[in-house]
Specification:
The chain has 114 residues and is mainly β. It contains 1 helix and 10 strands. Strand 4 and strand 5 form a beta hairpin.
Length: 114
Amino acid sequence: QVQLVESGGGLVQAGGSLRLSCTGSESFVGMNDMGWYRQAPGKRRELVASITSRSVTNYADSVKERFTVSRDRAKKIMYLQMSALKPEDTAVYYCNTLRLSVGWGQGTQVTVSS
């Protein structure tokens, strides 16, 4: 059944901050290389941030220095801390393994107003 669930999205003004959460069954999130993806209206889904099981992180150039991906101590939750948000960050955000081994959930909507 459902293995990953995204939450924390909402409406925020440009320059604001938001934290997204991704929860998984057991310690799934901590046992896999994970990624945050987003899809804006009319655009392709893109990987914006990733974190490996060894906690090595990478970011798309468009979000570098503004977004931070992390896991909690128990490695049961993955977070995406988003700061200095821009209208172009508006999208539905999804979490998944980097191998896309889990079906896509409904994601969480992030809307940044100008």
